[in-house]
Write a structure and sequence with these properties.
44% of the residues lie in helices and 16% in strands. The protein is α/β, with parallel strands linked by helices and 264 residues long. Strands 1-2-3-4-5-6-7-8 form an 8-stranded parallel beta barrel, surrounded by 6 helices. The chain binds 2-phosphoglycolic acid.
Amino acid sequence: MTERTRLFAANWKMNLEAAQVDQYLARFTAGLRESASNGIELAFYPSAIWLERLLRELTQVSSAGRSIFIGGQDLHPESAGAHTGDLSGEQLVSAGCTSVLCGHSERRQDHGEDDQLVAAKTEAALRVGLLPVVCVGESLEQREGGQTKDVLQRQVSTILETVLRTTETQQLPPIVIAYEPIWAIGTGRTATPDLAQDAHAAIRELIRTAAGVEAARATRLLYGGSVKPGNCEELIAEEDVDGFLIGGASLDPDSFLDIISRCG
Ligand code: PGA
């Protein structure tokens, strides 16, 4: 059995201003230095204007047993050009980033991103060597209509097929999939551990079918949706939950550190 390194990712969304970022980083780096958690990976996805600050401050507390990815919340599939307001993977890499979120449900909703576009963004991230954290998950309506597995099938397969088509070796490159049921995001309503495990097992099976046993074993699957210190331990105990993508609770350095130390 491949040991999958647990990954705890902070998605700050459109939050925190300059002074708050500085306070956060001071508190977080002090707390992480004291923390015993080891053999884990962390990731931060701040607003792009703060990437440089995070790269400067967090690189100092990154270590072999606790490496920290810093990345964008989105990228454009093209490398450069007339796309006002967008960022390319090439730009993120040249700024020092190592990862990027693709297809977060808020981007799918607010900006009409569909599965094809999300797949193209994932491909663009891989092209430049960024670790893509690709978000999938059903809406409340889809869950109540019994369509969860179909939605996951469509979302995950589109990504895998696109990525595998452009990979010469036909081997799945390192990507992370975050299962984030839309009804659980920012609502305080978390998926039960059983429900999260069920969805994660379905995603792993889709990976196995598309890319083989080894890829299915090695690919990390994160859960996201109202993760907090009070519910993280029961979720991480599930076999196919390899970490979290955390919004609200990651905005407080102490609660993010608490989650890391409970689950890391
Ligand atoms: P939440 O957000 O933890 O605030 O629910 C998770 C996410 O959208 O990544």
